[in-house]
C-alpha cells in the first residue's frame, strides 16, 4: 500500500524567504532565553530585520503580522 | 400426580458477524484487526474535500467516505448491496453514490434509494449497507466502529486538550507499515524517548535510566517516572474515554518560545493487521501573541522537526518482527506495556464472546 507520510501538513504552499527569515530570527532570539514581547521585538530590530513596511518592528506591527500568519 | 418436564435443551449459541465482515472474528483476529465498539479517528478532514469520495481501509474492512452536498461526512461499507462492487468506484451524486456496476444508488444511511435497472425492486428502501456514526471535530473525521449491528454508538467526547480553548493544536496524520498494537506499546513506553529520540529537538534532556510506576485514575492510568519530571518524555496517561487515547507532555527547547511544554494527544486506528494510521495532535497551552507565534513557528519550522521525531518511531516499529511481542524479556520500564496488553487482551476476549453468541 502507499503510505501517507507528508512532512508539511499544515501549509500546502511553500513559505516565502521573508517568512522563513522571520521564523529563524524569532527562534534565534527565543534561543537566548528571551521570551517576552518587548525583548523579542527589540531583538528583531537588533538583528536588522525590518517590518513588512520597511520600518522598525513595533509591538503593534509584530502582533499584526503574527495575527495574520499565526492563525 | 403428573409432572411436566420443564427442562429445555440449551439454545445453541448463534454466532454473529462483525459489522463489515461476513464472519465471526476470534479474539486473536479482533486483536490483530482492532477492537470494536469504540470511536476511532478515521481521516484528517482536509483529506476529504467537498463533493469528494475516498476509500479507506480500517480494521481490515474497506469503507467509503464521502462528503455530501451539504458538507456532511458519511461512511459506508465500500460494498454495493447488490453484487458487492466497491461503491468507491462509482459516482458521487450529491446525497448518494451510484454503483459503477449496475447504477444502484445508496444514500448516506446505507439505504438503497434507486435501482435504475429495475425500478420498484425489493432492494429499494432497504437499509442494506452498513453506515457508521460519524463526527467531525478537531480537524478529523471520527467514526464509531460497531462490533455487531446491534451496537449503539457511545457518546462522542473529545480528549481534554482538544476541547479546551486554552490549548491550541495541530493535527499530524501518518500511515505506518506496522501493527497497531506496536503503536500502543510504543507510546506506553516513555523510556524509548531518551534513546530512540535522544538526538531530537525535544528529547535530549534528562537521565537515561529511571524508575517508573503506574498510577491509577478513574479513566485509565498514568505510567510515569518517579524521579524525573519535565525533562524528557517522562509520563504518559492512557485514557479510556469515548475513544482510547494517550496524553503526554514533552519539553520544548528555549527556541520554541514561551508557553511551556508541548502536549501530544495520540490515537491510532488499525488499517489492517499489518498497517496502522496514527493521529497525533500537537498541543500547547498558549494565549494571545504567544499562541500566534507558536502557530507561526509550528508551520514554518517545528512541524518538520516533529516529523523527524515521528520518523524515528516509524523506523523501529516497521522493522519489528510480526511476533515481536512474544517471548520478550520485559523489565520494570515495561509495566505500562504489560498493562495495556492485558487490557486489550481482555477486551478482545469479551468481544469474541459476544460474536460467538456466548455473552
From TrEMBL, chain A:
> Which residue ranges does the record annotate as region Disordered?
52-71
Q: In terms of domain of life, where is this protein from?
A: Bacteria
Could you tell me which species this protein originates from?
Janibacter cremeus
Q: Which residues form the Recombinase-like domain?
A: 2-70
Q: What is this protein called?
A: Recombinase-like domain-containing protein
Residue ranges, compositional bias (Basic and acidic residues): 61-71
TrEMBL record, chain B:
Q: Which domain of life is it from?
A: Bacteria
Q: Which UniProt keywords apply?
A: 2Fe-2S, Dioxygenase, Iron, Iron-sulfur, Metal-binding, Oxidoreductase
**Annotated transmembrane regions:** none
| GO MF terms, alphabetically ordered | 2 iron, 2 sulfur cluster binding; dioxygenase activity; metal ion binding; monooxygenase activity; oxidoreductase activity, acting on paired donors, with incorporation or reduction of molecular oxygen
Ranges where the Rieske domain occurs: 39-143
What is the species of this protein? Janibacter cremeus
Asked whether the UniProt record includes Metal-binding among its keywords, one would answer yes
Name the segments for region: Disordered: 1-20
N-terminal signal peptide: none
Protein name, entry field: Phenylpropionate dioxygenase-like ring-hydroxylating dioxygenase large terminal subunit
Stored PROSITE patterns: RIESKE
List all Basic residues biased stretches: 11-20
